[in-house]
Amino acid sequence: MTAAMSRTASAELGVLAFGRAHAAWSQADGVAEDDLARYALAELAELRAATASLG
Question: pTM of the full predicted structure?
Answer without folding.
Answer: 0.79
